[in-house]
Amino acid sequence: MTITDARRAYDTDVLVVGSGPAGGSAALALATYGIRTLLVTKYGWLANTPRAHITNQRTMEVLRDLGVESEALTFGSPSHLMGDTVLCTSLTGQEIGRIRSWGTGPASATEYASKSPCEMIDLPQTYLEPILVSNAAARGAKVRFDTEFIGFAQDADGVTAFLRDRVRGDEFTVRARYLIGADGGRSAVAEQLGLPFDGRMAKAGSMNIVFKADLTRYCAHRPSVLYWVLRPGAETGGIGMGLVRMVRPWNEWLLVWGYDIEQPPPEVDEKAARQIVRDLVGDPDLPVEITSTSLWTVNHSYATVYSSGRVFCAGDAVHRHPPSNGLGSNTSVQDSYNLAWKLAMVIRGEAGEALLDSYTAERAAVGRQIVERANLSRDQFGPIFEVLGVGGGSDEQAIAEGLAALGAQTPEASKKRRLLEEAIQLKNYEFNAHGVEMNQRYASSAVLSDDAPAEVWEQDPELVARPTTRPGAKLPHAWLVDARGERLSTLDVIGDGAFTVLTGLSGGVWDTAATACQTELGIPLRVVRIGHDNCRDAYGEWSRVSEIAEDGVLLVRPDGYVAWRRATASESAQSAQDELLGALRRVLDR
Fold first, then answer.
1. SS3 587
2. CA-CA distance, 479 to 490, in Å (whole number)?
3. What is the model's pLDDT at position 239?
4. pLDDT for res 6
5. Are 325 and 409 in contact (CB under 8 A)?
6. Is 168 exposed, middle or buried (0-12, 13-18, 19+ CB in 10 A)?
7. How far apart are CA 582 and CA 590, in angstroms?
8. What is the pLDDT of residue 5?
9. Calpha distance 98→167 (Å, rounded)
10. In the 8-state DSSP scheme, what is residue 170?
11. CA-based nearest residue to 503, from 239, 512, 427, 247
């Protein structure tokens, strides 16, 4: 089928259902890659509450590659305003402890900074979604609001989606090559597709209260995005403790409080919401403007398969969990980034459809990991309660007595203080889980393993990021210097929707091989030789992390993951061409 015939046969190449982090990212990436894309959402606009917010380094790297990192930095709160996580009895009450979070502590700051060119920020969903969707539209994606997904029918050639215009009331169809269901935790696409799920839904009840109040005097001296509050009832439902979360410093906030899911859902009117806010802040006279309230449930559920035929699901549609660790929107963005380049290459005829099978193979394991981690982090408030001697039914006096016992000058109190410190440090697995965010390893047909020994983790893989160039890992960040003497990252010389052949100054044989492969396969193929004037290894950082000789080679995918590597030069120019061409054919199902 020619390009002209395809345009006549399909209304769009890819239909994206949902405009959240997963849907917006899919539309942005696909539009950036030149793929005809239609995004539909049943809502009249984008996110109206700041639900997701933590934006980790890997997601910032994705936004960097898609050309919107600067906008994210403009609207996000920087890391130095995020990291002094506080545990307390109220914002005016007694502090239980603090945790230097999100890589802002003296020990972790260097580790975070050395692993990425990007800074972690706090970017509420109300700011992230407009960045994604507006840029997608600017790059050619079509966006329809007030358009409800009803269902779909797929065949060997495409997908017919049935949609309803919620303004006019009429129903219509859209014919697409592929459909992406990014329609959230109650995904209609995933339900109709019959994706298999493991886990449990609705294990606990929570409420969100979005409000405005000037809390500068309580927070500016200990800047954080999260203030955890131990009040009577904090152990019921919810996400471990009460939470006062910064949306904008220091006058816009989101409060999270739990409720017993075995009981009827509570009525949270403005009066009740204001009372809960004042109770957790600890100021009975605080002027409060309630912006919105909502109820939601804590889930522990993940899909084991992400697609069937020409229909794919991404984001909360396939992994449903509490907001602990701040993994939700990050994983959603990264799902779509993984899928988009594969769809683009298949649609352009540059890859076989079997490449799309690698989406489930690579992302389902990540989805399961983050669901398990987020739920475990929620449960890891338990040791703090245990040390303080508070639990179900504890009142304000019992909490006060538990804290007072810590201050005694006795051997028993000394032991309790050590145990409390250990319990608080356990929360590093929620607030400093750098490895969970950066150590994702892929195993699929789009990754060609080499004969290297099995990876050895000398440090905790959940806490510490370990860069490597082994196939299936993300290309390590290292600072280079360009021809103007300015710094650029290794991540800046790859991506942009194309494969990259990455070698050193002595790797000229791979340059020649790449030119031949590009001609043979008809695909864009970038060649980068580190050591040339436009990307010098001035600091020696690349030589320390590359794990290959200067004449070796890495084949890096458009998403920055290593697809194949050879530690040293091939025996001849012809064998280099044969090896590289063979690797590309296997990865692309050619």
1. helix
2. 6
3. 82
4. 63
5. no
6. exposed
7. 9
8. 65
9. 50
10. -
11. 512
Check: CB of residue 468 under 8 Å from CB of residue 456: no
For residues 9, 12, 14, 20, the Cα torsion angle rounded to the nearest 10 degrees is -160
Both tokens assigned to 481: 């210097």
User: What does DSSP say about strands 226-229 and 84-88: parallel, antiparallel, or unpaired?
Assistant: parallel
Segment 299-312, tens digit of pLDDT: 999 999 999 999 99
For the segment 49-56, the average pLDDT, to the nearest whole number, is 96
**What's the CA gap between 551 and 505, in Å, rounded?**
7
Task: Give the pLDDT confidence of 127-177 residue by residue, as tens digits.
Answer: 999 999 999 999 999 999 999 999 999 999 999 999 999 999 999 999 999
Q: pLDDT averaged over the chain?
A: 95
Q: Which amino acid, 27?
A: A
For residues 278 and 8, give the distance between their C-alpha atoms in angstroms, rounded to a whole number. 60
Q: What whole-number distance in Å separates Cα of residue 405 and Cα of residue 413?
A: 6
Alpha helices in 76-226 (DSSP H): 106-115, 125-138, 188-193, 216-219
Residue 232 has pLDDT above 90, yes or no: no
pLDDT in tens, 375-388: 999 999 999 999 99
CA dist 134 and 132 (Å) reads 6
Question: Rounded to whole angstroms, how far apart are CA atoms 401 and 406?
Answer: 9
d(CA 178, CA 183): 15
Contacts of 334 (CB under 8 A, 6+ apart): 58, 59, 62, 363, 366, 440
pLDDT for residue 178 is more than 70: yes
Task: Give the Å distances, CA to CA, from 301 to 201, 203, 319, 382.
Answer: 6, 10, 6, 21
Mean pLDDT of 565-584: 96
How far is 62 from 64, CA to CA, in rounded Å? 5
What confidence score (pLDDT) does residue 2 get?
59
Q: What is the pLDDT of residue 451?
A: 87
How far is it, in rounded angstroms, from Cα 459 to Cα 122? 27
